[in-house]
Amino acid sequence: MGGRREAEGVQLVLLGPPGAGKGTQAEMLSQFYGIPQISTGNILRAAVQAGSELGRQAQKYMNAGQLVPDEVIIGVVQERLGKPDCAAGFLLDGFPRTVPQAEALDRVLAEMERPLTAAVEVAVDPEEVVERLSLRRTCPQCAAVYHLKNKPPRQPGVCDACGAALVQREDDREEVIRKRLEVYAQQTAPLVDYYAGKKLLLKVDGGQEIGAVQAEIRRKLEAVVNKA
Ligand code: AMP
């Protein structure tokens, strides 16, 4: 699959239920295209850890598996997209999550004169998600993500990248996972039709192993990116 590849103006959105492997795929795509991965979940978790006002507002929603209010997260993303590292493009992971967020993103991108290149849907069977998420471990320090079966750390319980002790996310407990899946079906799944209607949707099978999912995404993006 080769190394990093420069691409100008690649603006991507990654869709899919919790546990689809969006974060892992986003990280790989971000390296390949040389564009920042903007994960709203990671931004919010960092804010909670830092004890900021944003973190204080977001924490109760996150722990309950609910979405933080649109106006809060839209402001965060708008500010982030204005940073200089987004000049050559960006990849949004975990945003938008509702139709009003998608509409707000369209407005922001229109202002920036940076149309969306594609919305990639990583589709997985919801039944599989509960097992996947219960085996997920994350690094509280650098946000690296592992899976005890599919992507274990080299040394059990220790982050390969920074050496911190891995943890299970508060919202990866089974009852919260079920709530998150319900929220996805009700509030986020409609975005599949939203982007299909704009002819921006690329659907990939997230049930394959990590490298195969990545290869399918790149193959499908290739056609779109080369046209741009
Ligand atoms: P994630 O890491 O993407 O699964 O996000 C973890 C949690 O952060 C979600 O369950 C929400 O509570 C919150 N969150 C992340 N992104 C968004 C978003 N775009 N809109 C609302 N809430 C979000």
List keywords for this structure.
globular; 5-stranded parallel sheet; Rossmann fold; 228 residues; binds adenosine monophosphate; two-stranded antiparallel sheet
Structure write-up:
- This protein is of the alpha/beta class and about 230 residues long.
- It is built from nine helices and seven strands; from the N terminus they run E-H-E-H-H-H-E-H-E-H-E-E-H-H-E-H.
- A hairpin with a 6-residue loop joins strand 5 and strand 6.
- Bound molecules: adenosine monophosphate.
Structural class comes to alpha/beta
| Helical amount | 40-55%
Report the mean per-residue pLDDT as an integer.
92
Write the CATH architecture name: 3-Layer(aba) Sandwich
Strand-and-helix sequence, N→C? EHEHHHEHEHEEHHEH
Bound molecules: adenosine monophosphate
Strand content: 5-15%
Total tally of structural domains: 1
Look at the structure and name the CATH superfamily: P-loop containing nucleotide triphosphate hydrolases
- Total count of strands: 7
Strand order of the largest sheet: 2-3-1-4-7
Which parts are unreliable, with pLDDT below 50 for 5 consecutive residues or more?
1-7
> Major sheet, described briefly?
5 strands, parallel
Topology:
Layout: E1 10-15, H1 22-33, E2 37-39, H2 40-50, H3 53-63, H4 70-81, E3 89-93, H5 99-112, E4 118-123, H6 126-134, E5 136-138, E6 145-147, H7 174-188, H8 190-197, E7 201-205, H9 210-227
Parallel strand pairs: 1-3, 1-4, 2-3, 4-7
Antiparallel strand pairs: 5-6
This protein binds adenosine monophosphate.
